[in-house]
Each structure stands twice: as C-alpha cells, then as structure tokens.
Request: fold
Amino acid sequence: MPDARCPIPYSPFPMINCQIPTGLIVSCQAPADSPLHDPIVIAAMARTAINRGASGVRIDTPAHIAAVRKQVSAPIIGIWKQQLPGCEIYITPRFEDARAIAASGADIIAVDATLRNRPAGEELKTLIARIHSELGKLVMADVDTIEAAIAATEAGADTVATTLFGYTAQTENFSPPGFDLLAEMVEKLKVPVICEGGISGPEMAKKALDLGAVAVVVGTDITGIDLKVTAYKSLMGK
Reply:
C-alpha cells in the first residue's frame, strides 16, 4: 500500500496542513470495559502501527489522543464518541467535542455526517466551517449513503469515508464494507474518499484501493483483540 499523503489543493484554508494520510490507517480503539481501554495501551498500539508502516491512526477520546500524540508524529484522525440523549449522531457530534480532541492533538477531525438530526439543531455546514476556521483542522466526514456523502462535500468536508455504512437505520440491512458505495463515491465526489468499516484482511484493503480509495481504515482486524477472541470462541464452541 502507498504511504504518501494526499494533498488537497482546493482547500480554501491555507493555515491547514492540507494532507491526508493514504494507504493504511489503523484505528486503535477498545471497548470501555476492556483492559486495552487505557491510554498507555492505545498509545502503544498506535506507535506499533506507525512503526510497521501505517500512514496514520484513528483514535477516540481526548485522553487517548493526547497519549498517542506523545508517542507518534504521524497524522491522527480524532473522534469522540458521545451518546447524547435523544440523538443518534454519536461520532464527534458537537463543536465542543471537536475542540476538545483538536486541543488533545488530533490533526483531522472525523464527524458523523449522516443526514440524521444533529444535536441542538446545529447544521453540518456550520460545524465544518467552525472546525476549519476556529480550530484550523481538516474534516473527515463519516457517512452511510451517497446522498450523505454528496451533502458532506457540499458542506465543506475535506475527505469522506464509508464508516457508517451498515450502522444506520437506512443501511442496517447491509453489511460493511460498502464497496458499491465506495465506488459510487469515488465516481461522484471531488474530494479524497476513504474506505472504513468491515475490512477483514489485506485482500479486502487492496480491493478498496483498487476501487479508488486513497486510504483504508482498519480497526478490529488489527487491534480488536476483544472482538477477535470472542469471534474465535463463538465459532469454536469451546
């Protein structure tokens, strides 16, 4: 896989380092009840991934981002999963969440950019504009459909990912990875497209790149010890 960075020549924000990691991005996360859910462990995962050739990492919560930032200089895609009352949007739903992870050291802010209602009626376009102008960060839009992808680019997203395909009411009957969605996004969008979700092997990652993705985010198949062990035990029946 390539490990260069993808320039964004059309960015209207010259203060932003307009590069997105390409090739392999590793998502270093763990369930809240896991021993792995510790800033030191998450940082070790991230450093290992970068040492072995990953071009960037995707990290959840300000505490974990801060710990990873001390260990790696490679790009960090930051998120903060928040379960807000009466709101289905949960990946960096508010500007205050974006501000917290930016302050912790994230280079790129990933946000839920589905067409679902946002908290406090905030518009995606406003959120992205504030992240650009007030935080000086690039925005990665996590989407579930082509309609959401197009809307995210129109709202100013710098890159769009298939992250939420299969995880919303509109796509719950489908299983990631969303290769058909990926191909359509590559065809119709003018921003770099990232494949995320459901990648369970190098062959699948290569297919995503062959379809035109500039990068592939891999999480569970590399860092998801809890889920991988559970899956083995379930299939083995012992």
About this structure: Confidence is low (pLDDT under 50) at residues 7-18. The longest helix spans residues 39-51. The beta strands are 5-7, 19-21, 23-27, 56-60, 76-79, 108-112, 138-142, 159-161, 193-196, 215-218.
